[in-house]
Write a structure and sequence with these properties.
Elements: H1 4-48, H2 55-98
Helix pairs in contact: 1-2
């Protein structure tokens, strides 16, 4: 059984992974909706002239911004929090390892 600090770390990691999933879903939904709106507004130009309209420029810029925000949140802030938690857990594991015990092999009553 894991030590209490490892259980807390795993729980927090799971919660942060859930937040990452929400961020990905929201950004993906916004990008999909934006693509559909641009496609609908672009229809007259495509039908008459066979070209894409200028709205694709705006859509591409917004998609790039959304992807950058998603990466900043997922890999930046949330990823940093996960790395920090792992560092704290490793630090708390150290005294146990110095005593010759494995942090994952200690029997705890809870």
């Amino acid at each position: 059984m894991d030590t209490p600090h490892r259980l807390v770390d795993r729980t927090i990691d799971g919660a942060l992974d859930g937040v990452k999933g929400v961020v990905n879903s929201v950004v993906g939904g916004l990008q999909s909706a934006g693509g559909q709106v641009v496609g609908a507004l672009d229809m007259p130009l495509k039908e008459t002239l066979g070209i894409k309209g200028p709205l694709h420029i705006v859509d591409d810029v917004l998609n790039g911004s959304a992807n950058a925000t998603k990466a900043f949140l997922n890999q930046g802030i949330l990823g940093a929090l996960q790395q920090f938690g792992e560092g704290v857990s490793k630090g708390l594991d150290e005294p146990l390892e110095l005593m010759g015990a494995s942090p994952k092999g200690l029997p705890f009553p809870f």
